Amino acid sequence: MLSNLTAQPQDKILALMAAYRADPRETKIDLGVGVYKDATGATPVMRAIKSAEELLWKTQETKAYVGLAGDPAFSAAMIDLVLGGTVDADRLSAVATPGGTGAVRQALELVKIAAPRATVWLSNPTWPNHPSIVKYLGMPLAEYRYFDSQTGDVDFDAMLADIKAIPAGDIVLLHGCCHNPTGANLSAEQEDQIIAALAANGAIPFVDIAYQGFGDGLEDDARFTRKIASQLPECLIAASCSKNFGIYRERTGILMAISPSASLQAVTQGNMAFLNRQNFSFPPDHGARLVTMILGDTGLRSTWSSELEDTRLSMLNLRQQLADELRQRTNSDRFDFIAKHRGMFSRLGVSPEVVETIRADNGVYMVVDSRINIAGLNAHTVPILAQALATALK
Ligand code: PLP
Ligand code: TYF
């Protein structure tokens, strides 16, 4: 039986991680996988997480199963964090999932049950796991235009035209904030135009929000998601706690669904719990419990949000520094967009050959589409990257 297997395509981001590890050069720089790193290159456990873990260790008296949907207190805390009271609880369903990836998977499986013929529309480009999961589930897939590699900005006219043409009942996957891989995001006015287009054509939004707090702050980063949730009749939301709580390996995420009416809530919730049971029974609890403790405690919450804010500001500083260095070294404003982008990533818009040259000559690892993880840089390595790029582009 196992002899029937053939090799699966690799995730290019995870393959890059392996290539970086195998490079013996001490000066190598990892701008690949989306993990936050501080100025020393460490991915620290956040202070609030450490405190919550200590408290949990002292007070937790059982590790018995919780429930198919996870702890309702986690759902309530995350609904509040992401939606901030913009949607009535009686239309909201939620289940904890293994990470944001698990939420994306469960959301698509829910679509498969409810609307098996619906096409899933993805931004071009998007996070590689989106098309990978859609294809694996055998669902129809299509793309809407998103990025203009000449300007480094959203190609908004093209995006809006494509969204307007999507048929009623199809699913439109939108990044809640901090678009991965481009770093280019909609303005508040552009968001409103996208929402108006969805209201007019009856396509159903599915928001993936994995970087709340990494862009313009916890509230601003939730703005698009909240407007979608409160202005459109139904939507799905996949939220990840991996980045903003720094608990990547704990696999902590949540799927939320907003039903058009309260009468549909129970059956929606039941289907989501059913899907959890089919796939893994109970979602992981440890990370979800830490998040619940932090969000529910004034002291822990303020420790967490201030550390998150420091993280966000450090990435903004690196953005500005990199844009400035590139302006100087390339003698052009070509890369000014880096300072305007938000989140962990920017797509530089250089060719795969340039990406490869910089890797071979300078040991700088970025994804082949020229996505860089801003947090992989520090004040010392920004000029090294800027010079490597300027040289390779000559
Ligand atoms: N969605 C996007 C766009 C992402 O970039 C990520 C990666 O972090 C995720 C979802 C989910 O990540 P995780 O499964 O680690 O929570
Ligand atoms: O885009 C990234 O780098 C992050 C981390 O299969 C990631 O979202 C990458 C690949 C993957 C899961 C997470």
Q: What is the CATH class designation of the largest domain? A: Alpha Beta
CATH architectural label of the largest domain: 3-Layer(aba) Sandwich
Count of all domains: 2
Major sheet: order of its strands? 2-10-9-8-7-3-4
Tell me the strand percentage band.
Answer: 5-15%
**Rounded mean pLDDT score:** 97
Helical stretch count?
15
The N- to C-terminal Cα distance equals 53 Å
Name the overall outline: globular
**What is the helical fraction, as a range of percent?**
40-55%
Q: What's the CATH H-level superfamily name of the largest domain? A: Type I PLP-dependent aspartate aminotransferase-like (Major domain)
Major β-sheet annotation: 7 strands, mixed
Report on this model:
With 394 residues, the protein is of the alpha/beta class. Helices cover 46% and strands 13% of the residues. The chain folds into two domains: 11-45 and 310-393, Aspartate Aminotransferase, domain 1; 65-296, Aspartate Aminotransferase, domain 2. The chain has 15 helices and 13 strands. Strands 2-10-9-8-7-3-4 form a seven-stranded mixed beta sheet, sandwiched between helices. Strands 1-12 form a two-stranded parallel ribbon. β7, α7 (188-201) and β8 form a beta-alpha-beta unit. α3 crosses α11 (286-295) and α4 crosses α10 (265-279). The structure holds pyridoxal-5'-phosphate and (2S)-2-hydroxy-3-(4-hydroxyphenyl)propanoic acid. Residues 11, 13-14, 33-34, 101, 127, 129, 180 line the site of (2S)-2-hydroxy-3-(4-hydroxyphenyl)propanoic acid (TYF). (2S)-2-hydroxy-3-(4-hydroxyphenyl)propanoic acid (TYF) is lined by residues 11, 13-14, 33-34, 101, 127, 129, 180.
